[in-house]
Amino acid sequence: MNAPVIGTRVERKEDYRFLTGSGTYTDDVALPGQTCAYFLRSQHAHAKINRIDISKAKTAPGVIEVFTGADLPGSVGGLPCGWLITDVNGQPMKEPKHPLLAQGKVRYVGDHVAVVIAETLNQAKDACELIEVDYEVLPAVVNVADARKPGAAQVHDIAPDNTCYVWALGDKTAVDKAFAQAAHVTKLDFINNRLIPNAIEPRAAVASYSRGDDSYTLYVTSQNPHVARLLMTAFVLGLPEHKLRVIAPDVGGGFGSKIFLYAEETVLTWASKQVNRPIKWTAERSESFVSDAHGRDHLTSAELALDKNGGFLALRVHTTANMGAYLSTFASCIPTILYATLLAGQYTTPAIYCEVTAVFTNTAPVDAYRGAGRPEASYVIERLVSTAAREMKIPDADIRRRNFIKEFPYQTPVALCYDTGDYEATLTEALKLADVAGFEARRKEAAARGKLRGLGYSAYIEACGLAPSNVAGSLGARAGLFEAGEVRVHPTGKVTVFTGSHSHGQGHETTFAQVVADRLGLGVDDVDIVHGDTGRILFGMGTYGSRSIAVGGTAIVKALDKIVAKGKRIAAHLLEAPDADIEFKDGKFTVAGTDRQVPFAQVALSAYVPHHYPLDKLEPGLNESAVYDPTNFTFPAGSHICEVEVDPDTGATKIVNFTAVDDFGKTINPMIVEGQVHGGLAQGIGQALLEACVYDRETGQLLTGTYLDYAVPRADDLPSFKVTTRETPCTHNPLGVKGCGEAGAIGAPAAVINAIVDALAHLGIRDIEMPATPQRVWQALQSAKKERIAT
Amino acid sequence: MEMSGEQTILRPQAVTWSSITDPRVLKACIPGCESMDKVGDNEYELVMGAKVGPVSAKFKGKITLADVDAPHAYTLIFEGQGGVAGFAKGQANVRLLPDGETTRLQYTAKAMIGGKLAQVGSRLVDGVARKMAESFFSAFNEHVSGVKGEG
To answer: What is the pLDDT of residue A241?
Structure first.
């Protein structure tokens, strides 16, 4: 009997490569004859381009070519949006063209104006300085609250009032009726702060063209190389899909920002044929700040109706979401399909109505960022619930328990059907782990030192395992959301697995190997996982939305089932027994009820050396693939409790304790899960306390364009997290898994802000805008002080 | 961002006026100015170096004198391109008030930067712009009065 592999803390196989500097990132790729590209970007948020003069740049030393928007042939399309949202009037959303290089106008600081291709990077940069652009600067609109104001600058002619769509979900009449009968209504207005993703590896691409067979190869920092290939060939460049190979090698973090098809890699691919040489581009950090798709940026007004006992009757939410200057690949579905559908949270709220207005502004495109819609939804619910609890003098845990969904499956009023969960269990465990019982004593002790302690709750839910393709399609998705896996058993019984789920920090090479090793009775080292190459892998929808183990992992399991089924037939032949009598366990095929057995490796060998083999019934070889389309979303959920200490003299908040009890279904590798939770919490706490992308409201200049002004959390901003999991297995996938990648970023913001408000509530403070910087907290304290003196 | 200041020039208004509209004087007093050439009525092309925090840039730009009300007031409009470093623009309203044999020079100025300069230097640019304005008007005072100006 082998030791169990699933559920154990196997050290990450990929870490040797990463820790010894042996990884291969896109920027490590060096092809013979490679050239360098540098993009000239707009310095204005909104301007008409009267003229571009590239003549001096073209003759500068080392320059091979300079391209502007005028050089792209008419057959080259704009960057597509992968999700069609239909507005409240049944009209399709406004989809302005998203050109690869500016066509007569620039619409945000960082927008692409021209590309210089030169022998060296410095030559390309020097030549960029020689490009003369005659801009006619136009008024800009930046802030989500300003976008629809009368007289606001218009970003696109085809989108009047800068409106992309007005979309709604839920039963408005039922909600209005419930509000009319409510004993109590809690109302809050929020800004969900705009974030910049900051993957440690900046975006990069190396494109090359082979004249011999008219084919292209693109190395790119992508979370989903097959999607990049499909969009680039079929929708933008008009190339035959089979003539482009996209390789996403080692990628240093994505957090969503590397899902999308960007102008840079697309221009490089096109240009590689024009110059007939490989071209490399690697973003500098300053370029990442202005040109990676940003996240969040919602303005929301939300109300919760309650009965006199604190039971939730209805929820009403109005959100304006900033799309930026153009629709990025999945931008349109983030504040709708991935947001409004989550507004039931963990609760039995019977009526919910959500209206979302998406607007264009002169800022970088906004798209999915870790959590993508779900952190925004969770923030709305959990801030409202804690505020309502305070107003109605019901303890935080009690109001949540009173409203928890307890019976499954549960159909929410906002389209989703939760298959399973145990919210009471995660909350109870969190209360214990956070030592909530001892909090009042800690609060008193802190008060004696002049500090204000607060405790904040957040019981979040997310929908992962994206997605049943037919459901997604009915909601406007222009793609399927299945995943592919292939299991190749070699003659010696060693295994290579090809998966469409890309790994860029998630540890798939270990987790997926554990799944395979467990099923086939092999060691983890007997299994290698290959991902990120359209030339080697059947297909893939990629990695986002915490979908890899639930969808990609299941595809591998389905392929493993086929391997085992074929193996049984081979073993039956070798053991001279009927197929139906063969059992497979611990890496051995056994005739049921006997000690006659044949090990897996011998079956594999027989498949490739078919001397004694049922050739009349079976093909030689042992290689199987499967494509899995999930039947439902998965619903990870949990309870986070944050304890803060606020210094009233400085407004500084210190997180003294953070407890996360998450239910991700079955856990494959607890160490990797903890790592994912830690990372997610760091980003969630970053949003709550530190991070804010700020554009100058008038000029549209990005003011937080470096780490001097954009604060990401550092180790000393964070406590030692207390994290654990409870397992209620997912009911509709064979591993019982739900996904864990985004939970931290979804649950943490509300927990942190609820904790700060709890610390300050006795002073009359009921809300603090994110990020709750010392300045904001201090100002809130001063205003509250003034009000108290006045009254 | 807006700033304002006042200098007392130890020369009468007419002399002060002719100096502050003289490109040679302006060139000598604009910090970092490398060249300034007249290209039209009240229009000059200029090259100047400036440093905002970690970004050093050479600006090629244009200075225009507008709303000229001799010898009382004018508006100096500046627009400069610093290549990949970004751009800067601004304007200064200069007013000369006679005060016996001396002149009170009052100015209000505003500046705006864009591109990389804004991304890396937005928190520094106020100080840089203020210092540049002060050093311009002090240098001007020194040039015209022959004494160190008082801010």
So the answer is: 97
How distant is the Cα of B106 from the closest Cα of chain A, in angstroms? 27
What is the rounded distance in angstroms from the CA atom of residue A766 to the CA atom of residue A424? 27
In sequence order, what DSSP letters do the residues of A160-172 get, joined into one string?
GGGEEEEEEEE-H
* DSSP state, residue A548: I
Express the helix, strand and coil content of chain A in percent, nearest 5 each: 30, 25, 45
In a mutational test of the B interface, the residue from A41, A363, A701 whose CB has the highest number of chain B CBs within 10 Å is A701
The two structure tokens encoding residue A785: 């002080």
Residue of B nearest to A708 (CA): B120
What does the pLDDT read at residue A676?
97
CB contact burial A540-573 (16+ within 10 A = b; e otherwise): bbbbbbbbbbbbbbbbbbbbbeebbebbbbbbbb
Fold of A18-138+200-253+258-291: Aldehyde Oxidoreductase; domain 3 (3.90.1170)
Whether the CB-CB separation of A524 and A10 falls below 8 Å is answered with: yes
- Fold category of B2-143 in CATH: Alpha-D-Glucose-1,6-Bisphosphate; Chain A, domain 4 (3.30.530)
A407: left (phi over 0), alpha (psi -120 to 50) or beta: beta
Let me know: does A304 contact A188? Beta carbons within 8 Å: no
> The domain A298-406+415-466+632-790: what is its CATH number?
3.30.365.10
Asked whether the beta carbons of A570 and A613 are under 8 A apart, the reply is: yes
Instruction: Report CA Rg, chain B.
Output: 15
Class of domain A482-628: alpha beta
Residue bearing tokens 């950090």: A285
Beta bridge partners of residue A187, listed in sequence order: A303
Please tell me whether the peptide bond between A409 and the residue prior to it is cis, using omega within 30 degrees of 0.
Answer: yes
Query: Which residues of chain A make contact with B87, given a CB cutoff of 8 A?
Result: 43
> What pLDDT, on a 0 to 100 scale, did the predictor assign at position A541?
94
A449, exposed or middle or buried, with CB in 10 Å at 0-12, 13-18, 19+?
Answer: exposed
A683-741 pLDDT per residue, tens: 999 999 999 999 999 999 999 999 989 999 999 999 999 999 999 999 999 999 999 99
How many whole angstroms separate alpha carbon A765 and alpha carbon A777? Answer: 10
What's this model's pTM, rounded to 2 decimal places? 0.94
Is the ipTM higher than 0.85? The answer is no
Q: Rounded distance, CA A462 to CA A784, Å?
A: 35
Contact A701 B116 (CB under 8 A): no
Average pLDDT over every residue of A359-384: 98
Q: Which residue of B has its CA nearest to A128?
A: B84
* CATH 3.90.1170.50 intervals, chain A: 18-138+200-253+258-291
What distance in Å separates the CA atoms of residue A723 and residue A426, rounded to the nearest whole number?
11
Domain with CATH 3.30.365.10 in chain A: 298-406+415-466+632-790, 482-628
Q: What is the largest CA-CA distance in chain A?
A: 95
A591-635 pLDDT, tens digit per residue, is 999 999 999 999 999 999 999 999 999 999 999 999 999 999 999
Q: Please report, for chain B, the start and end positions of each structural domain, with discontinuous segments joined by +.
A: 2-143
Measured between alpha carbons, how far is A186 from A304 in angstroms, rounded to an integer? Answer: 5
How distant is the Cα of A360 from the closest Cα of chain B, in angstroms? 21
| Helix (H) or strand (E) segment spanning residue A663 | strand A653-663
- How far apart, in Å, do the first and last CA atoms of chain A sit? 75
B contacts of A41 (beta carbons < 8 Å):
115
**CA A196, CA A130: separation in Å to the nearest integer?**
30
CA distances from A690 to A65, A252, A769 (A): 42, 22, 11
Residue with tokens 């009598």: A581
